[in-house]
Amino acid sequence: MEQITLEPVDSVRITSLVDNVADTTAPSTGPARRTGWGTGTLEAHTMVGGRSSVPLVAEHGFSALVEVSKGETTYRVLFDTGVSPCGMIENMRRLEVDPTTIEAIILSHGHYDHTTGMHGLIEALGRPNLPVYLHPEFWNRRRVVVEGSDPRELPTTSRGALEDAGFEIIEQARPSFLLQRSVLVTGEIDRTSAFEGGFPGHEAFRDSAWQPDSLILDDQALVLNLRGEGLIVITGCGHAGVVNILRHVTRLTGTGQVHALIGGFHLGSRAMLNRIAPTVEAIAAFNPDYLVPAHCTGFRATHALAERLPEALIPNTVGTVYTF
């Protein structure tokens, strides 16, 4: 693999816009500041005074606003958009995050729990005229086959709908750069670990037939190099395998220090239970300063990571802002 130069940035601010958990009592810790509630109040006729606090919306999906500062320049990218048409954009409103400041969108892969919020973004922005970075396999029709149940086809993002809305679609299997080589979209991840075997029962419709698609080759991550600290790696679901992702980005950038790993690690289902122990040990070998499991990581894997790396682990909640 040919190494690339990922230019260092001065600071990074990540706002959790969509995740499976909302928690108004979670304490702030390390780089994580808990917002907990949205701003203002909501009409509620059953409450004394007719108003109530504004909650944040939790849903089975992932989205993060990533703000990258380098010198006098701050660049804002949106990484994934959540599972419902308006959950992400509603959380943006409640957190007073301005969607018009977004300069690019990265979609980690084609699963609808990471892409459906494009609907709400279009409604909020009108004709966005923004670049959207994704892998060519992103558009595949997909389904999940579980023994004893009928196959369940997953909703698929419409290329025509995004293009008609004004988005510029940038498809690449190879790495892409933004902000003068300071923001890296990995493209396709090398699969090298012995225990990360993809998504059992996952299929794609190719050549007029459903075919096995356990590897989900469109799965990609976002990587930053924080000056003097190391890599910040953000995953969507981590279908490529979170260990594969860490190995890939450290080889690709030639930077061995992982400052923070944030996102979904896809270890929550019963089929993934035997991967938890080797994944935990392999992550521990990278010795990340901060570890933020989210979305599809699952309770068992999060608990195991917390036991193994108690000083590094920070549970994610919707509305949390991480400042590095």
Outline of this structure?
This protein has 324 residues and is of the alpha+beta class. The chain has one domain (11-37, 55-323): Ribonuclease Z/Hydroxyacylglutathione hydrolase-like (Metallo-beta-lactamase, Chain A, 4-Layer Sandwich), CATH 3.60.15.10.
Describe the structure.
The chain has 324 residues and is of the alpha+beta class. The chain has one domain: Metallo-beta-lactamase, Chain A. It has helices at residues 87-95, 118-125, 159-165, 242-253, 273-286, 299-308, and strands at residues 11-18, 32-33, 41-43, 51-53, 63-70, 73-79, 104-106, 131-134, 142-144, 152-154, 168-171, 176-178, 183-185, 202-206, 209-212, 222-226, 230-235, 258-264, 290-294, 321-323. The protein has an eight-stranded mixed sheet. Helix 5 packs parallel to helix 6. The model has no long low-confidence stretch (mean pLDDT 96).
> How many domains make up the 3D coordinates?
1
Largest sheet: 8 strands, mixed
Low-confidence stretches: none
Largest sheet strand order: 2-20-1-5-6-7-8-11
Helix content: 10-25%
The CATH C-level name is: Alpha Beta
Number-wise, the strands total 20
How large is the radius of gyration? 19 Å
Average pLDDT, to the nearest integer?
A: 96
User: How many helices does DSSP assign?
Assistant: 6
Order of helix and strand elements from N to C terminus: EEEEEEHEHEEEHEEEEEEEHEHEHE
Spatial gap, N to C terminus: 29 Å
Report the sheet-strand fraction: 25-35%
Going by helix content, strand content and strand pairing, the class is alpha+beta
Assign an overall shape: globular
CATH topology call: Metallo-beta-lactamase, Chain A
CATH superfamily: Ribonuclease Z/Hydroxyacylglutathione hydrolase-like
